[in-house]
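Q: For a teaching session next week I want to show students how multiple molecules come together into a single three-dimensional assembly. I've collected the sequence lines for a complex. Could you give me the predicted structure tokens for the whole thing so I can convert them for display?
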Amino acid sequence: MSTCTTCPYCGVGCGVIASPDGTIKGDPDHPANYGRLCSKGSALGETIDLDGRLLAPRIGGKDVDWDSAIKLVAHRFSDAIRDHGPDSIAFYVSGQLLTEDYYVANKLMKGYIGSANIDTNSRLCMASSVAGHKRAFGSDTVPGTYEDLEEADLIVLVGSNLAWCHPVLHQRIAAAKSARPGMRVVNVDPRRTATSQLADLHLQIAPDGDIALFNGLLAHIAAEGPVNKAYVSTHVNGFAAAVAAAECSNPRDSGLSAESLAQFYAMWAGTEKVVTVYSQGVNQSACGSDKVNAILNCHLATGRIGRPGMGPFSVTGQPNAMGGREVGGLANMLANHLDIENAEHRDAVQAFWRSPTICTAPGLKAVDLFQACAEGKIKALWVMSTNPAASMPDAAGVAEAIGHVPFTVVSDIMVRTDTCDLADVLLPAAGWGEKNGTVTNSERRISRQRAFLPVPGMVRPDWQIICDVAREMGYGTAFDFDSPAAVFREYAALSAAVTQFGRDFDISGLADISDADYASFAPAQWPIPNQKSAGGRFFEDGGFYHPDGRARMLPISAPLAHVANGFQLNTGRIRDQWHTMTRTGKSARLGAHMAEPYVEVHPDDAKNLEVGATELIEIEAGGHRSLLRALPTDRVSKGALFAPMHWTRQRNASGPVNAVVHTRVDPVSGQPALKSGRVSARKFDAAWYGFVATAHPVRQYGAYCAVARTVTGWQAEVADGRPLNDALATFKVLTSVQGGEISEMNDRTAGLVRIAHRVEGKLNAVMFCAPGPVAVSRAHAIALIGTDAQVTDALSGRARGAALDPGATVCACMGVGLNDLRRAVALGATSIDALSAATGAGINCGACRPELAGLLLPATDAIAAE
Ligand SMILES: Nc1nc2c(c(=O)[nH]1)N[C@H]1C(S)=C(S)[C@@H](COP(=O)(O)OP(=O)(O)OC[C@H]3O[C@@H](n4cnc5c(=O)[nH]c(N)nc54)[C@H](O)[C@@H]3O)O[C@H]1N2
Ligand SMILES: Nc1nc2c(c(=O)[nH]1)N[C@H]1C(S)=C(S)[C@@H](COP(=O)(O)OP(=O)(O)OC[C@H]3O[C@@H](n4cnc5c(=O)[nH]c(N)nc54)[C@H](O)[C@@H]3O)O[C@H]1N2
Ligand code: SF4
Ligand SMILES: [Mo]
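A: Of course. Below is the structure for the complete assembly, covering every listed component.
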């Protein structure tokens, strides 16, 4: 039997049809994706095994029963409240919790413990958008819908690598563009990315040049005419001051040429139907909130908002980033888009909850929260569904800070993560496919996640774990829910109880939803004031949420350029991994796209650092360092580096890249500036490099050791600064092999060592070591593991005869490699469709199509993994 559910990764919120045997298909009826899925969604079936799962509660590393774990957690929290007050407790939660989980966590902290020290990883993700929306609209409202992207004549993607991070939206835009060739796409990003390939114009902006760019646009709009005077005079305050401030900015501070600016301004001003999509290149900045308002100003001035095909569109990252904002998951918000600072709001929520208390002031935001941990102010911490020891800036400092907290609880689905490793108590949560609830996507659409797998071991859904702890703390009936439907009903009833405040978020129409209706709930966009009317756009006719009903344009100044030493470190995502890789890292197919952490560096900088392609770069800041594979490319500008955020201590011996990212935040939103670290960089002096393929997990060894799953087991890329004195001993440490036959080939003059291990006639592990980066076919070595291949073949390092090395995987679904594609290009393929026909690449989920397009460009433009 198959089940309709929702993908647990990005904020597109695609509908998925899943079967217990792991078969995954796109849901043709879901309005987010109409049947499409990207590579991560398609590979969900490969990530639901129980390998590495946390299946029982643990205290101090030992399995215990639930009763002992819940009692300990509740009593330690209650003791901390009694001895040090409510603010000595902190929850750090996640946009990957379901709405029901999030609602009860927030209710417990804000209404019962009586503190607002609950913040979420959305602080690292959406906080600047929330702040910008609230300043402009009086509410945290995303006005548009996905259809606007298809109806627009111009789409501007600012700080968004949509092709890799919201692939199904990217595909929807690509399809609309090929159906309507007049549609244009502009990409604003200091880096050339897979998304740039869809764009008619890539504006390779200076880091944080966005305000200069959009202030210049506003000044242009004011001077050249497309101001919507009727809209502004009826619905908008602050026009004159915003324009005056914009006129003080120099658009050239964006780093763009006068020609590019003129082209972009003419395009934007001259196109009524324009959508400006923005993401982390905007939010994750020390001036992120101001960037958001600089963009919103242009849409408000032209009245291009809330009508089909136009509007600002902040795309959310996590599957329930939007839901978390609705339930008040951030330390400075209350449930239902109500405000902590507003006494009437507080009273109404407290009255509805009939709670003994309610927080009266905003709590600690993520960076401050972990700072308070470091300072000993937090006596008990509960981390749920997020991995801050890897994903927070200054990750090493955060890990140390968690170590300072006398009592740390982590709810996760995995036993080992960088954060789980620091916990006193681990609570096993039900994962995707095992639990029920709702999520809200980027276009405000609420969809059900439904269970389709048996619940393994002792795991419980997060909402239930939170309620168990709350009950044990003595908050009894307020947490006596017997199902996620019951939690959802209360949440919707809260929405009904506070309609007098007239907030944008309204799901009062669901207050009486029955269990059966909840079970069969079809995706619906809020507002849902009653069951018959749902969805739509906001603000076409004004109706903003400031007390006077008008929007506010804000005077925004561009940040002062400051000269700094070293390299600017930009960070972000790759197509086939999700965050800290606890789930996507299980799929060999996804791992094959990019199997190790890397850093994009401009070829001139690489030359100056004397680092060759595939050598290692050591980046350093604040006494911490990270080792990454060098990828010289002019996709980044001189002086800039780009590294993906995904690799953690579990997968790279040198630890997460966030160890070297600073904790600078946006003063308005508290969101960290994760895209603009300052680091020094040098070549890592490796005495040797190695590559290992094995049937079994790798034990990390050496300064650099990046491990990944393969179709036949595991692989590791290794390097160390100390000489390789005993290759065999090193091989045994890495592979943990015992018994069997070992064959070693040594070329002492060239410093080459090759080792193969066979057990009962089957190849179990191979290792290749060399003084420089190891040049053997990874695909060949991996393919031989578990086969009866001869030692000479295994140690030859490349395929014999006609079998050619496919190269790094580009198409994860069909397993097509870069070399396969290059060969097809060499044989005459000149279009994406021809490449697909020749190799099979791109025929399933289509997420690699931007990379296929890149391969058809001149060599230096290719975006695929090299
Ligand atoms: N494959 C994959 N998809 C994901 C995720 C994942 O882990 N993997 N995570 C999800 C989550 S939670 C999120 S938040 C989203 C993030 O989605 P995106 O925001 O699209 O992804 P990022 O790679 O973080 O950053 C986007 C771009 O911002 C650019 N940038 C850096 N500095 C600036 C600047 O000053 N100005 C401008 N204009 N651009 C700049 C970077 O070069 C980068 O290409 O992705 C979601 N989707
Ligand atoms: N340098 C840099 N750092 C960044 C970013 C960046 O662009 N650059 N982006 C930031 C952004 S936007 C985000 S959103 C964060 C994301 O960072 P994190 O939230 O830390 O990353 P995840 O790997 O998604 O962590 C989710 C954790 O929850 C666990 N989990 C999965 N399902 C469940 C469940 O159902 N219940 C429970 N209890 N646990 C579960 C997973 O195993 C995993 O350990 O990273 C931020 N950090
Ligand atoms: S675009 Fe991909 S990752 Fe995002 S929801 Fe859809 S299938 Fe999942
Ligand atoms: Mo995010």
